[in-house]
Amino acid sequence: MSTVPAPKPKPFVLYTAGTPNGRKVSVFLEELRAVYGEKVDYDFEKIDIGRNVQKEPWFIKLNPNGRIPVLVDRAREDFVVFETAAILLYLEQHYDPERKLGFDPVSQPNDYSEMLQWMLWAHGGVGPMQGQANHFNRFAPVDIPYAKNRYILETKRLYGVMEIRLTDRDYLAGPGRGVYSAADINVFPWINVHQFAGIESLDEWPSLQMWFGRIEARKAVQDGLAIP
After folding, report:
1. Which residues, in sequence order, are bridge partners of residue 46?
2. Are strands 79-82 and 42-46 parallel, antiparallel or unpaired?
3. What are the residues whose beta carbons fall under 8 Å from the beta carbon of 149, sequence distance 6 or more?
4. CA pair distance 27, 222, nearest whole angstrom
5. Do residues 81 and 90 lie in contact, with contact meaning Cβ atoms separated by under 8 Å?
6. Burial of 200 (0-12, 13-18, 19+ CB in 10 A)
7. 119-158 per-position pLDDT tens digit
8. Chain centre distance of CA 112
9. What does the DSSP 8-state code read for residue 222?
10. Cα separation of 151 and 125, whole Å?
């Protein structure tokens, strides 16, 4: 009697949800998979944040902060990584030897620093501010016009910062007109849901709008946005 061997586990498990933060990681993984194939394949588990699954004890063991996404690296003794920017940098460090989505910190120190600067800027700015705009425009139990206006205006200001940077550039970091990298992937999913935050159009920021269209057209980006 022949037996069928069990399929080899994929290198990663991604615990995620259909939010900008979750989709940063799925887009990055899809971009890596387009280059390296099965070496960076992954399983994913959709976390129902509406039912607070991310607050359950089993998840808190993975991420004490109780937030998605979380990446478990089966290929490295089930090493756990949380926080989106940290996950992207971890994947770039360990699984992008050709530096297709980043820069070598030794041979390209200035480009690497630029990438870090824009990642941390988005991590501390666009995500939290647009997230608050989402909350007060969509989910707050009472209507607070001051809060809605404050966070919309701050989100627009941050879009204006990107507009300044992207004038005469294609991407946020790197030499010349820039190189598509983790810096772009780290912020794109937030810009992708600008309408949800109450910003109807990107027309006010033409360079940002062109950057957005350039990234949106990538197949790996579309595949990543479809997860979970």
Report:
1. 16
2. unpaired
3. none
4. 8
5. yes
6. exposed
7. 999 999 999 999 999 999 999 999 999 999 999 999 999 9
8. 18
9. H
10. 11
> Distance between CA atoms of 11 and 101, rounded to whole angstroms?
19
Summary count for the chain: helices (H), strands (E): 10, 4
- Per residue in 77-106, pLDDT (tens digit) is 999 999 999 999 999 999 999 999 999 999
Q: Which residue has the tokens 């890596």?
A: 32
| pTM: predicted TM-score of the whole model, two decimal places | 0.95
Q: Whose structure tokens read 């700015």?
A: 125
Which residues 6+ apart lie within 8 Å of 28 measured at CB? Answer: 87, 88, 91, 101, 182, 185, 224
How is 83-117 classified by DSSP, letter by letter? SHHHHHHHHHHHH-TT-SSS--TTTSHHHHHHHHH
**Length of the chain in residues, anyone?**
228
Radius of gyration of the chain (CA): 18
